[in-house]
Structure formats: structure tokens, C-alpha cells
Amino acid sequence: MKDMTPETDTLEVRIWRGRDEGRFETYEVPARENQTVLDVVSEVQRHHEPALAYRFACRVGVCGSCAMTVNGKPRWTCRTHVQKVVDGGALTIEPLRNMPRIKDLATDMTDFFDKWHRAGGRFEGTRTRHDPIQPVDPESRARKNANAGIECINCAVCYAACDVVAWDDDYVGPAALNRAWTLLNDEKHGDQRGTLDAATAAGGCGSCHTQGSCMKHCPVGISPTRSIAGIKRMSLMDFLNMRGK
Amino acid sequence: MTEARLFALQRLSAMVLGPLVLVHLGVILYATRTGLTADALLERTTSSVLWPVFYGLFVVMAAIHAPIGLRNVLREWTPLPDRLVDWAMAAFALILLVMGLRAVWAVTGGVS
Ligand code: SF4
Ligand code: SF4
Ligand code: FES
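Output (C-alpha cells, whole complex):
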């Protein structure tokens, strides 16, 4: 039967207010047929709670800034339809976990991004603008590996989903390692050695338990689990001196 | 020793241990099912170089594999300082190695 939700229906929305100390506030928001979780949060901010803190920018799933915990799961809110996640007419919206809270729905992502560097995520070019462009075979195995992880939008959904991140502060997390894996498969990256050493150092790929929450929740369908397994394999090959160039 | 190296050693020792463990279990089943006496067992283990080589390798691999795994667990789940864990695990590896090789020697030492 088609959902004929009339405009007068309401959603009961519980939103976390405060920092570590705080409380859930409940708001009534009209339920519409086509509505994302971010729409709901914006509606609350515009009409009920002008001081509500939250982040978004693109509203179309590109910038990676709008992720929150929705009914217990980490999600990109701008591309999450209420109909898909609503539970008995209710939504509970909290900040992402595994990052320090700032206020309401906004978290401090500094560590998350610093860890990208710790995992060797900085690209080092080898040519200048005066050199000819380096050709890359799109069909090569390495390029296919890189492509599989390259569309990451830095949303930290995987980082919030990972239990190892939750209990081990030192672990750099799935997104940082996925980034390292794309660089390790990028022929144009000049510091392969440095990236492999960083990604396999303490708190790196060895800390992953292959538990798979990251790939289950990644909104763009990346599997950091697979990328991390790739780094482990590469590090083993490197140890045996069998790594292809 | 780098983390990457420890990781590689743990994986490689696991690959060697896999088949060794299966053979070991098979031997246990065989020995208990057929009701071999201790004397008969010792006679067999001392009569071939295969056994000291087999269990010597087993001990060396276990002495590499177990401390690395235990180190991971201790680092992740206890507040012990990393250096303390490292030293304790190095000692653990040594103990496994010495005790294991002693045991192998004890049951196969008579090889002529
Ligand atoms: S696969 Fe690894 S990184 Fe992904 S959620 Fe599990 S432990 Fe975390
Ligand atoms: S890997 Fe996926 S979930 Fe993780 S930061 Fe990138 S896009 Fe987000
Ligand atoms: S607002 Fe940019 S990804 Fe959601």
C-alpha cells in the first residue's frame, strides 16, 4: 500500500543538547513525504531551537560534514531519508561517537584528521607542472584498488562505527588506513615507503580486528576492511621482499 | 623490531603451525586410540630424527607466535606500559623456547 502520510502527521524527534553533560530534548516536527534527517534537524533549528549546533554544507552527500548518530547508527544525514530509519514515528539524533563533543550535534574532528597524517596519508608528488603528465593504466590492478577506496568523503561514519577506535585511542581508524591504501596503489605517489611504514606502525593496520562495522556503515560503499587487509598483505609481501616494485 | 615485522612473523609462524598442529592432534588421537604405553611411545619418539625435527620446529614456531599474540592482547586490554609488555613477552618467548626444547630433548634425546 502506498504511504499516503498526510502533512499533518508529526515526527517525535529527540535531539542531544549540551556537551558530555546534557540531555535529550524532544521536538515535534511535521512529517513530510520526502524528508531527510538533515531536513528534520534544520527544521528544528529554524523553528524551535535557534541555538542548536550541527554541521552541514553540501546537502548532497559530497562534503562529508553532516554525519550524526541516528537511532543508534552512524549515518550521513543529508542522504538518509527519514522513512528509512524512523522507528515508530520517532527519531533519536546524537553526535557521532568516538570523537570529543563540542556542542549538541557537533564533534571535534581534529584527531580524526590528524590520524590521516599519522597513517601516512599525505600525497607526495614526483613531478612538476613542467613535466609531462604521467600515464596511469586504468586497468591495472593497483589502479583498481585505488579506485575502490578513492571516493571517501571524510565523513567519519566508519570511525564512529568502529569498536576498536572506541576502546583504543591509539588506533588511527578505518578512514585513515583506507586513505593510506589508495596512496599505496597510486603510482604517482612518491613516498610509498613512508606510507607503508606509517600505516603498519603501532596503532596502524595491525590494530584492526577485521570486524567490518566500517564497511557496513560507510555511506558511499567503501570497504575500509578490504583496504586494511590489503595493507596487511602488502606489509607481509614487503617483509618477504616479494612486493612488486 | 617494527610492528610490521612482528605482524609478519606472527602470520608466517601461524602458517607453519597450522599443519603442525593438525599432525600433532592426529598423533595424540592415534596414540590414545591404539593404547600405546609410555614405553612404546618413547621407543618410537627416540627411534627417528623426524620427531625431534618436527617438535623442535613446533616449539620454535610456538615461541614466536604466542608471545606476539599475547603482546597484542596485553597492549590493547591492559594499562601496562608498552616497554614492560615488550620485555615480559621477550622473556615469555625465551621460557617457551627453553622449556619446549627441553621437553623435546627429553622424549627424543635417545636418538642415536
Ligand atoms: S574492520 Fe577494522 S577498521 Fe573496520 S570497523 Fe572493524 S576493526 Fe574497525
Ligand atoms: S570510508 Fe566511508 S565512512 Fe569512512 S570516512 Fe570515508 S566515506 Fe566516510
Ligand atoms: S551535507 Fe555534505 S555530505 Fe551531508
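The CA atoms of residues 52 and 108 of chain B lie 6 Å apart.
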